[in-house]
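Hi F.,

I've been meaning to write this up properly since the lab meeting, where we talked about keeping a consistent format for the predictions we share between groups. The idea is simple: the sequence comes first, exactly as it goes in, then the structure tokens exactly as they come out, then a line or two of notes. No screenshots and no reformatting. I'm using this chain as the first example so we have something concrete to point to.
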Amino acid sequence: MATVVVLCSGGGDYQQQRRRPSANYEPSSWDYDSICSSPTTQTQQQQQAHHDHHLLINRVRRLLLDDATTSSSRRLRLIHELQSVGVAYHFREEIRDILASIHHHGLSGDLDLHSAALLFRLLRGHGIPASTDMLLLRPFFFSSTNLHALYEASYLAFPGETVLDEARALAVQSLPAAYVQQQLPLHWTAPRLQAMWSLTKQQQAGDYETQIVRELARTDFNLVQSLHRRELAEVTRWWKHTGLQLQGEFARDRVVECFFCAACIAPEPELVDCREVLAKAGALIVHLDDIYDVYGTPEEVQAFTDAIAAWDCASSVELPEYMKVMYKAIWETSTTAADRVLRKQGYNVLPLYKKAWHELCKAFLTEARWHRQGYMPSLGEYLANGWVTSTGPLLLLHALPAAGAATGAPPRLVELASTIFRLCNDGASHQAESARGDAPSSIACCMAEAWCAGEGQARATVQGLIADTWKALNKEASSVAAQSMPVAMAADLCLNLARIIHCIYQDGDGITSPTHRMKHMVKDLLFNPI
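Output, unedited:
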């Protein structure tokens, strides 16, 4: 860890030099001027694409609802294709009615294993009861198709369903190692990324249905990408206006990566306010994390935490200049977002936002104190604080009201998604943070336990915790998915947060040190039409 010499305001008319640590973070990979120059209005070609898009939606809807020519198995495969290429959101009501009808009439017994596994995934994903019996009480043939279907279905397990763990182990033994080791399961993959990858794969010509669906999906992807790019330009202009990007000598500048995550958590066009506040809050959090982890002194971070608790611009007067910039950006961003929710939905969420920022700062402060005192918490103590420092609660508390779910998600959903966030982040960042001498991680906490034989066992333990937390998250999400649309949307946002975290930390810390794969994903999702 290098040091930065900073000129700090002293108590008199002089300036005092202070040496501070610096983590030597990579600068931003993106040209902000180029991003900000993106067109702000639609071209004539895009307007025509919108017209074609509407016609294609109606054609696919007719295919989906054509009882005369579509068997249950074929309809399930069509729904799966719509999900895989990212356009199922246009047919939410139709898909739910079809699945409810299949479940109500007990048609699952007529399906082969591949179709039954697909139905199992779809039912659980929509909050419709689905027993593991529908997978296991039928003839099993060791075909590649059946094994893939069983493997993917196993990731929808609830706590205690060990039979699905056994089914997954059986599938893993027979599937190609590359499929299991290099790809995330579909249920753990951000749907927007899965759509992009599905559409860019070389595909055979396919039947009429497939051709129509893919034509819709390509048009939809490019239109949504164009919208996201215009939004990114606005968020980037905001970021430049805050002045925080000028503090790159000690903090990460990752506004584009944060918008990428926001576009994967809330990709649908109507969730524009949600994406905006997610991207802005995310960029602020990354910066704030570096202040507490690396740069700020104990006295400064305590003063900042107290100022956040007061939530008054006058409280920031005594803060160092670099913290005043941070404080102003947080205060203005959350206040503006809260005003928008109040204006559009009639809910005053500012007290929730203020509390979320204060809780995050207190949790950051706890980690900083552990680090300063050389204290190693137990794994349970660490995670009780760590699900908050993951920043998931703050992100979701800002995102849900902006998405129209002002009543929020059940707290347990937020906690579970945030725990997955924390554990995945630790797995990717443990080595680099240990080398820098940062605060402990879940892996370090495991390694300090008497039962742990080393880093390998600690990592295996954390992976087991991630799998178990996903089972609990599956059950919670399924239990609310059949409720009102706002609650179901809240569950989807929590799931998508956990999913994009898996993607960005799959082969390293995609935020702190963006890998080639991470940069490629960002470029393809936001800048390269299909």
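Notes:
The chain is about 65% helix and 5% strand.
The chain has two domains: 2-30+243-526, 44-214.

If this format works for you, I'll send the rest the same way.

G.
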